[in-house]
């Protein structure tokens, strides 16, 4: 079942166009079952998550936007929820941010899987693998490489992936590098589900703290991250969030939904 067939199977009403990107409008448990089916059928599928920041980058970088057409895109964060309310009159069924969804998916999948990790620093990737093994011990977690490799090292990394051929490959290189790397380099001979996970491995390793649970429940984790790293993230949130909503208003006025 290719990505087009997957979209057809969900039905047109199960997809929402956010700034030209088709985002799956699917409940958490249904998304877990879909990914499990893909693994069972060994259906190679690229997976990523769309939030306001990623959407802004896609508006500015045509190659990234084009690459997302070949990904199963899941909704992440309050920004895309607000966009869905404005454009379609209803939010997405669930917030499927990768930081929470990926560990939940691994815990829910009882069939033993091989999960590769690539990205961040070697130390953080190793620590994340240990944390994931504690959360979902039925699976094997293998650190393939850190995220700081040269073009000369890439053939060796891809060959290792061919030999290992993990069921899932968690790629943590930041947006848009991780999606572009997946799009340019990975095929079914390397893994079944490559998932672009952003800062997930840094969060799991403890290198980057997460917001308190009450802030996450209120959908305010972005505020916590901004307070934690204002110098790096102010443009993403203070400038990026209003820009994203302005673009959504323009999409609404254009009638492109």
Structural class: alpha/beta
Number of strands: 8
Mean of residue pLDDT? Answer: 94
Task: Give the strand order, joined by hyphens, for the main sheet.
Answer: 6-5-7-8
The main β sheet shows up as: 4 strands, parallel
The value of Rg in angstroms is 18 Å
Percent helix, as a range, is: 40-55%
Q: Per the principal axes of the C-alpha atoms, what is the gross shape?
A: globular
- The overall number of domains is 1
Protein name: Exopolysaccharide biosynthesis WecB/TagA/CpsF family protein
InterPro entries: WecG_TagA_CpsF
Keywords: Glycosyltransferase, Transferase
GO molecular function: hexosyltransferase activity
Provide an overview of this structure.
GO terms for molecular function: hexosyltransferase activity. InterPro entries: WecG_TagA_CpsF. Keywords: Glycosyltransferase, Transferase. This is Exopolysaccharide biosynthesis WecB/TagA/CpsF family protein. The chain has 257 residues and is α/β, with parallel strands linked by helices. The protein has one domain. It is 53% helix and 15% strand. The protein is built from 13 helices and 8 strands. A 4-stranded parallel β-sheet has the order 6-5-7-8, sandwiched between helices. It has a two-stranded antiparallel ribbon with strand order 1-2. The mean pLDDT is 94.
């Amino acid at each position: 079942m290719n990505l087009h067939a997957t979209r057809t199977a969900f039905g047109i009403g199960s997809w929402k166009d956010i700034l030209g990107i088709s985002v799956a409008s699917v409940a958490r448990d249904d998304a877990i079952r879909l990914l499990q089916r893909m693994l069972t059928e060994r259906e190679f599928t690229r997976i990523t998550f769309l939030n306001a920041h990623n959407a802004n980058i896609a508006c500015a970088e045509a190659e990234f936007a084009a690459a997302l057409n070949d990904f199963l895109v899941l909704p992440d964060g309050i920004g895309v929820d607000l966009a869905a309310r404005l454009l379609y009159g209803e939010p997405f069924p669930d917030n499927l941010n990768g930081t929470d969804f990926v560990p939940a998916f691994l815990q829910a999948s009882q069939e033993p899987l091989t999960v590769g990790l690539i990205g961040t620093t070697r130390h953080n990737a190793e620590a994340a693998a240990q944390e994931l093994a504690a959360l979902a011990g039925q699976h094997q977690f293998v650190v393939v490489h850190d995220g700081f490799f040269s073009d000369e090292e890439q053939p060796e990394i891809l060959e290792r992936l061919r030999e290992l051929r993990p069921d899932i490959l968690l790629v943590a290189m930041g947006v848009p590098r991780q999606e572009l790397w997946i799009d340019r380099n990975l095929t079914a001979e390397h893994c079944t589900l490559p998932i672009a996970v952003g800062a997930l491995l840094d969060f799991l390793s403890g290198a980057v703290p997460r917001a308190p649970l009450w802030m996450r429940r209120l959908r305010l984790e972005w505020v916590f991250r901004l307070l934690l790293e204002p110098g790096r993230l102010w443009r993403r949130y203070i400038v990026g969030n209003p820009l994203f909503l302005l673009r959504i208003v323009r999409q609404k006025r254009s009638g492109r939904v």
